[in-house]
Amino acid sequence: MADVYSSRLTDADAEIVRRILAGDLAAFELLMRRHNRRLYRLARATLRNDADAEDALQDAYLKAFRALAQFRGDATLATWLSRLVLNECFGRMRREARRQNVLPMLPHCPDDEEMSFDMDPMNAHDDCAPDQEVSRAQIRALLERKLDALPVGFRTVFVLRSVEEMSIEETAESLGIPEATVRSRHFRARQMLRESLSEEVERLGPQLFEFGGRYCDRIVAAVLARLRQL
Asked: Are 82 and 34 in contact (CB under 8 A)?
């Protein structure tokens, strides 16, 4: 079996493939758990629907299990799995497009320089009070809605680069596109997200730092308590 594996496979990946091919289902479970989060995010970014992403990922895993004997190691295991997931997602999109008589198109954009974008602006505060947890959930939901609004070519690049923190080379290999296209789409995705979020802030401006509810009650109670001590 040694000739099956090239230098693109790590020793750990080569071992897990050998175990799966030997009929070890526990090894395949380990493979899924290792790659689940990244592959689910990739499927979710492509299909924009939680249930569809889960279904596509499950089908891709089944295809991976059946095709693993033909895996020659000319790409990393992570890249190979990413391609299977994307193929499954794009196949579903094409079938849906035919049903709707619409052909999905990936828009082209010019190459641009890299810029930074923080997907989670509250990432530095992991131990949050309940109010902060609610705020984090709301911000995350807002970012997900805005990301869903991007064209699929930009969404997938953004998720792999900014969320999964894959390199430009890894992203290009996973998506089967040139590195220059990865740079270009990553830049444009961040730019479009910034513009979209800026519009949202302007729309919600009057509601920012809204005062009421328990904030009001807490302040009133504290002041009354201090007054009683006078």
From this structure: no
Residue 119 inside a domain? The answer is no
Going from the C-alpha of 27 to that of each of 18, 61, 226, the distances in angstroms are: 9, 13, 64
**Tens digits of per-residue pLDDT, 190-220?**
999 888 888 777 776 655 555 556 656 776 7
Percent of the chain with pLDDT over 70: 74
Residue-wise pLDDT for 98-152, tens only, equals 877 644 444 444 444 333 334 343 343 444 455 566 666 777 777 888 888 889 9
In this structure, are 79 and 136 located in the same domain?
no
What is the domain extent for residue 44? Answer: 2-100
pLDDT digits (tens, 9 = 90+) for 146-185: 888 889 999 999 989 988 888 999 899 989 999 999 999 9
CATH number at residue 84: 1.10.1740.10
Number of independent structural domains in the chain: 2
Same domain, 158 and 85: no
Q: Does pTM surpass 0.70?
A: no
The b/e string for 64-87 (b: 16+ C-beta within 10 A; e otherwise) is beeebeebebebbbbbbbbbbbbe
